[in-house]
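Appendix B. One record, verbatim.
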Amino acid sequence: MKRAKRQRRKTRPGRPGPDATPRVRPAGAPSDGVVTLREHPEPQDDALLERSLTQWQFGDWDSLARLSLDALHDHPDRGKLALLAAAAHFHYQNAEAVRELVDKARAWGCSNSVISRVLLAGVHNSLGRAAAARGDEGRAAGHFEACIATGTPTADARLLARARLALQIEQLDLTGTATPRPCLPRPPG
């Protein structure tokens, strides 16, 4: 039944084709031309939510910011996906895109509590990045752990926080605001 509905959705006239551009783009993100749906999975991709959640857990904001409302319109998990895209735009301080995506997430069925958890997690992420930029990896890891525990309470926050710390430090290094770190901090205890 679901597959038949998906097939009908694919063939509806008026839907964006494979060359549709995203409606929102992160402020300050490199514009490498048109982002097409071929560069990001199709809306009916059953693994899109799982892949996007992994990207959120690792802090891969560039990938999440490429999710467009047009591409998500017919996806069964479009509310959660829009919220994860909003988290990426929150990271890029693109308030207009965050508002638009959060409004869509709410309209597409995301509860206020889930929206609040993901946005609060973004605050912990920002605090973690600030601590990492100062070289305080212990405090940064604590904020990243709180971030993941807030946004995805059933995940292994300690393990994911270490992975996020490494990626966030790498992202900071690309902007020249942090010194390279050869290894991850040791786990407590």
